[in-house]
């Protein structure tokens, strides 16, 4: 069962339902909350608020009073929760075109929630030296995921996973480089999958991810960020800017057509479940790497 930790809100503590958590954070300026699947992780998160609240970086400040958290949840248990979190993200990230269309920055942010869809592979085709799963439209199917334990804390560990098929030689499980957060894992996993596709000269790639944040960043927000030199309209750099710049360079290649597809996390979707396992293994490799470097 999930545990919702509220470090700053109308009431603080650990709540067992999204509805109870939302009552504490909805409309509360600068609210801090996070969803966990282990109670001890929720307790660790709350400890960071016992003595002081960490100062927010400029890109996290907002006028809406809706909370922003530096992660995207592994899954969402209800459309209401999904909409609420997406509205939070939309309020924090620069969306110049949306504001122009609406005519006022004070209006409600666009809700960019995607519907989950699974494309079935119908055959295996050879690309380079590898057989890869292909759907009816000719897209190679790949699943990516990021994983982070103790996300947002100083001792966080994070990894990325790329899954093509069972025991496939191109599957990847590795630690992230740089900041250890869930979003970093999601971005770097996508980059890894695209690199593999390019090496194998894949012409069409369907990148399946449970990160709505990643899909919206690529398809909606990045053009605006780039026009503003990767800065947010209210000041400060886009978070994870270096990873986004790498991703941006990779997707510029016109020889590879990418379809960004959302799949719901923890919904018994095999590719997503396998990518999650690989990402979790990558996070454990991150911990091993840390231990070795500290010796």
Automatic annotation (TrEMBL):
Looking at the record, the residues that make up the RNase H type-1 domain are 136-284
Cofactor(s) required, per the database record: Mg(2+)
What superkingdom does the record give? Eukaryota
- Supply the PROSITE patterns for this chain: RNASE_H_1
Q: Which InterPro entries match?
A: Ribosomal_bL9/RNase_H1_N (IPR009027), RNase_H (IPR050092), RNase_H1_euk (IPR017067), RNase_H1_N (IPR011320), RNase_H1_N_sf (IPR037056), RNaseH-like_sf (IPR012337), RNaseH_domain (IPR002156), RNaseH_sf (IPR036397)
Q: Which reaction does it catalyse?
A: Endonucleolytic cleavage to 5'-phosphomonoester
**The UniProt record lists the keyword GTP-binding:** no
Which GO terms are recorded in the biological process aspect for this UniProt protein?
DNA replication, removal of RNA primer
Q: Show the SUPFAM superfamilies listed in the entry.
A: L9 N-domain-like (SSF55658), Ribonuclease H-like (SSF53098)
From the Swiss-Prot or TrEMBL record, what is one GO molecular function term?
RNA-DNA hybrid ribonuclease activity
**E.C. designation(s):** 3.1.26.4
Write the record's keywords in alphabetical order, separated by commas.
Answer: Endonuclease, Hydrolase, Magnesium, Metal-binding, Nuclease
Q: Provide the function of this protein.
A: Endonuclease that specifically degrades the RNA of RNA-DNA hybrids.
Which PANTHER family does this chain map to? RIBONUCLEASE H1
Q: Hey, which family's this protein in? A: Belongs to the RNase H family.
Q: What is this protein called?
A: Ribonuclease H1
């Amino acid at each position: 069962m999930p545990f919702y930790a509220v470090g700053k809100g109308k009431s603080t503590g650990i709540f067992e339902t999204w509805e109870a958590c939302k009552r504490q954070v909805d409309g509360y300026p600068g609210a801090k909350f996070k969803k966990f699947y282990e109670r001890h992780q929720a307790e660790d998160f709350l400890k960071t608020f016992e003595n002081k609240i960490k100062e927010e970086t400029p890109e996290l400040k907002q006028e809406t009073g809706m909370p922003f958290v530096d992660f995207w949840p592994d899954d969402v248990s209800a459309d209401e929760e999904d909409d609420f979190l997406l509205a939070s993200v939309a309020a924090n990230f620069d969306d110049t075109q949306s504001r122009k269309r609406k005519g006022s920055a004070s209006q409600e942010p666009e809700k960019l929630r995607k519907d989950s869809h699974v494309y079935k592979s119908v055959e295996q085709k050879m690309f380079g030296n590898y057989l890869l799963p292909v759907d009816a439209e000719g897209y190679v199917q790949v699943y990516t995921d990021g994983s982070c334990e103790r996300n947002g804390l100083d001792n966080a560990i994070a990894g990325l996973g790329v899954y093509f098929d069972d025991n496939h030689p191109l599957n990847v499980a590795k630690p992230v480089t740089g900041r250890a957060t869930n979003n970093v894992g999601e971005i770097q996993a996508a980059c890894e999958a695209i690199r593999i596709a390019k090496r194998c000269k894949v012409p069409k790639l369907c990148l399946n991810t449970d990160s709505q944040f990643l899909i919206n960043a690529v398809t909606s927000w990045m053009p605006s960020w780039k026009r503003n030199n990767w800065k947010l309209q209210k000041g400060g750099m886009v978070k994870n800017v270096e990873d986004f710049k790498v991703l941006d360079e990779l997707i510029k290649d016109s020889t590879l057509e990418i379809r960004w597809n959302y799949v719901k996390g923890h919904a018994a979707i095999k590719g997503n479940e396998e990518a999650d396992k690989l990402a979790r293994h990558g996070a454990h490799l991150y911990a091993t790497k840390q231990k070795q470097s500290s010796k």
